[in-house]
Amino acid sequence: MFDQQRSTNRDAAEAFRIMSVLAEAGFVAHLAGGCVRDALLGKTPKDYDVATDATPESVREVFGKSHTLAFGASFGVIGVLPIKSANQNRDAPLTPTEVATFRSDGQYSDGRRPDSVHYGNAEQDALRRDFTINGLFYDPISESVIDYVGGQADLKSKVLRTIGSPHQRFAEDKLRMLRAIRFATTLGFQVDPATTDAIEQHAADISVVSGERIGAEMRRVMTSEHSADGLRRLVETGLAQHVMPGLLDIDFDRLTRLRKHLPCDSFAAALACVAIAGEASHQILLQTSRDWKLSSEETRQATAAVKHHATLIRAAELPWSKIQPVLIDRDRDVVVSVATAVATADDDDQTGLEKVRGAIRWPADRLNPPPLITGDDLREHGIPAGPMYRIVLQTVRDGQLEGEISTADQAWEVVKHVLSKKRT
Ligand code: ATP
Ligand code: MG
């Protein structure tokens, strides 16, 4: 099942090395969780997690303290560093493999994390996991899947279901409700009816989860190819009200069309599409950026796309001086992909966007010719600094971009004209 990944993927090979070292030291060691799920689905796992009956102390002893990181020691998780081969770049970062001791979780009192954990066996460790499809192990010795929770059957029938009572599991850790929607969305699965009912009942409790954590899950939902379905599920289950209230006013048919024409990997573009399909685009961006503590770069990109996509779609009829600033901006690519998605989804005329695509390929000095005069030039000519500078320079720039003027002398004529108008 993992043969191909072991030979082509360093992280997979590393996880198998770690499991064999643990086995030689007399411990049980399995691959666990997401990587087993993904391999059974024929997808490439994001990471390869190992679960073992060795305690964190034993794991550190077996691999040596200097080759391990105690990053989640209170939950029984140790990071094991890979052995560097001679031909590897000395400065390349070392990605540790997470090795977690089989455990069962104690009481939950904060709605997010267990107050304590107890080391146990593989079956107990499967039962503390969130969903059946995430509760599978792979044993490298027998080369077989170990399934205590019916995960394989649910993978086959494409159903997302909690392990054990959904009420209890969501009461323990509220984030699981959003994870349920995330996995169902990204995998294209149905959520089991009892699991859905429980989400509907507990939806308001999602508010105990931090905005950043909510944002991290929402990012996965929104960049998924089925994102419109996922966001609709959030509304239907009542989670939307608490994680992204703007979704309550979204035109989902339009969003579905928009997303069909948008490449999935840009979160900023995905967020812009949601905002554009909403009633109050600006409000959605503002609130999301604040609630999920988005980076200023992502916020800026999404805002630029919402603000300027219509300009690019109408590029054939607008003056060049209105379009050019968007095309030289650092966020141009996001704006262009959102504009393309909107125009295609709304069946708009594409002439403007064709013009845009052509201009993007121009040499730099044609797309963005050096200015004819600058603020320094104005200062040197003794023009007192003030708000007029911006108006003067903008007027000159617009004239230059429109092809009305092309020399410094002509620019100074414009300056004189603007200043004299100001005086009258
Ligand atoms: P991916 O890495 O692709 O997002 P994953 O399944 O690996 O998917 P992680 O968040 O990396 O998800 O978690 C690894 C495993 O830990 C999960 O497969 C699941 O078994 C368990 N797990 C993670 N979060 C929880 C949780 N909140 N409650 C219970 N089990 C969890
Ligand atoms: Mg993972």
TrEMBL record:
Residues 30-161 form the Poly A polymerase head domain. Its cofactor is Mg(2+). Its EC number is 2.7.7.72. Keywords: Magnesium, Metal-binding, Nucleotide-binding, Nucleotidyltransferase, RNA-binding, Transferase, tRNA processing. PROSITE patterns: PROKAR_LIPOPROTEIN. Residues 188-247 form the tRNA nucleotidyltransferase/poly(A) polymerase RNA and SrmB- binding domain. GO terms for molecular function: CCA tRNA nucleotidyltransferase activity; metal ion binding; nucleotide binding; tRNA binding. It is an enzyme of class 2 (transferase). Coiled coil: none annotated. It comes from the Bacteria. The keyword rRNA-binding does not apply. It holds the Pfam family PolyA_pol_RNAbd. SUPFAM superfamilies: Nucleotidyltransferase, Poly A polymerase C-terminal region-like. GO terms for biological process: tRNA processing. Belongs to the tRNA nucleotidyltransferase/poly(A) polymerase family. This is tRNA nucleotidyltransferase/poly(A) polymerase.
